Amino acid sequence: HYANDSNLDFAVLNLDWYKAFDLVPVDFIFKVLHELGFGDVFVSWIRTLYTGIESALEINNILSEFFPINRSVRQGCPLSMSLFIIFQEPFYRAVVASRVVRPLRLPDSTE
Question: Which stretches make up the Reverse transcriptase domain (predicted)?
Fold first, then answer.
C-alpha cells in the first residue's frame, strides 16, 4: 500500500527454492565463506563436516546401502540452514549492486 500511495514503482521477488538443500554446491559455500571473511580455521571446520559424508535411507525398517553425499548440504543438519543463507548471499549482493533493484524504505523502518 505504501508504494502505491506514494506513487513508487516496485516489484516483489519471491523465490521458491524447490529442493533447496539438494542444490547447494558445498565447494561454492567454502568459496563464499572465504569471500565473506570467515577465517581459514572456521572454513576448514565446515569443510570437515561436509566432505566425505555418506547417508543411507531407512524404508520399512530396512536400511539401504550407504551412498556418498557429494554436492549438497544435509537435510536435518542444524548448520544447513545457515549455510543455505550464506549460499544465497552472492545473489543478494549482485541484485543490490546492480542498481536496477533498490530496497524500498518504509516509514519508521530502516528498509
Answer: 11-94
Beta strands 58-59 and 53-55, pairing class: unpaired
Question: What is the reported pTM?
Answer: 0.66
pLDDT in tens, 56-110: 899 999 999 999 877 777 777 788 888 888 988 998 888 888 777 766 666 665 5
**SS3 label, residue 69:** strand
Q: DSSP 3-state helix, strand, coil percentages of the chain (rounded to 5)?
A: 40, 10, 50
C-alpha grid cell for residue 105?
524504505
* Residue whose grid cell is 572465504: 34
Residue 99 cell numbers, joined: 542498481
Which set of grid coordinates corresponds to residue 95?
Answer: 541484485
